[in-house]
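Dissemination and training. As part of the outreach component of the grant, students in the summer workshop were shown how a complex can be specified as a set of sequence lines and then modelled as a single object. The example used during the hands-on session is reproduced here so that future cohorts can follow it. Participants entered these lines:
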Amino acid sequence: MHVHHVGRHSDFAAAKMAKNNLFESERMFCDVYCLEPGQAQRVHAHAASDKVYYVIEGAPTFEVDGERQSLGPGNAVWAPAGSDHGVANESGDRARLLVVMAPRP
Amino acid sequence: MHVHHVGRHSDFAAAKMAKNNLFESERMFCDVYCLEPGQAQRVHAHAASDKVYYVIEGAPTFEVDGERQSLGPGNAVWAPAGSDHGVANESGDRARLLVVMAPRP
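and obtained this result:
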């Protein structure tokens, strides 16, 4: 059985936001994004893939189609295909997110 | 922005495991499964869709292709297309899972 514990499979990087892949196929990928304070994934779009962000730790700030919200653990955000979306850690604490995108672009 | 807080969007049901949908498109769905003690999703397979389970609360028992593991919060399980998979709450406490499947079958 393919199992990953997120706490043991999510590394941070000083240089930029770290993406830790858990599972992947042509149909989807599942990553853990780790953001040190000040790190971000710039706003971008995927024409034909949906993304879900789930906050595990911290209070990152999401942007989807120009709307911004800072959200704590337990919140899930929907970034549908074609939407301009990104996430920035503007807090003083680390942030970790479970991220699923389908299909893999 | 489409946001759901999992703790405010996950109901349990006495009759059977409850599926609470957060987001859905033809490319994926994202649900919260809520299992009272003794409830289960029977083992089944999807020929062309992958599933990821992420444990939010509790210690449910997963089965994938005949292998079984009980896993606590922070664990993610991969049930790829074609695999025989299911989950049972054999513990005495409630279990909640974030579940993503792609594509939606």
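The CA atoms of residues 25 and 60 of chain B lie 27 Å apart. Students were then asked to discuss how this feature might be tested experimentally.
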